[in-house]
Write a structure and sequence with these properties.
Helices cover 60% and strands 0% of the residues. By secondary structure, it is mostly helical.
Length: 121
């Protein structure tokens, strides 16, 4: 039987990371592999509960997607239409609204939950 235990603090988390590193090259189907799998689930659970990663800022994600797709602002305006105030949004003068969120989500393949979150200008 594989022995693992709950992680209750960050010191134990560091120990779990070390153990995971030691197990990375184990053979699939071995007891060590089972331990690697179980320990990774325990680590993920602890991280999710005590060190959650917040959602990225919507505007930063839009800018990143534009960069990834080699789009300039003029390209994006052509894709979404001039009736949408994308320039004001990217310049921090206006927040995203629902019609623009829908367009950007579809065109840039950004999950809607990232775009609909509250953010400061």
């Amino acid at each position: 039987m594989v022995e693992v235990s709950a992680i209750n603090n960050d010191e134990q988390l560091d120990e779990a990371y070390s153990e995971l590193n030691n197990l990375l090259n184990c053979k699939e189907g071995s007891p060590e592999y089972e331990k690697l799998h179980i320990l990774s689930l325990i680590v993920a659970d602890y991280e999710e509960r005590f060190h959650p990663i917040g959602m990225p800022h919507p505007i930063k994600v839009i800018e990143l997607r534009m960069e990834e797709q080699h789009l300039k602002l003029t390209d994006l305006i052509k894709l979404i239409g001039e009736e949408f105030p994308i320039t004001a949004v990217l310049n921090g003068k206006q927040k995203l609204d629902l019609p623009l969120i829908r367009k950007l989500s579809a065109i840039l393949n950004i999950p809607i939950e990232i775009l609909v979150q509250e953010y400061d200008l």
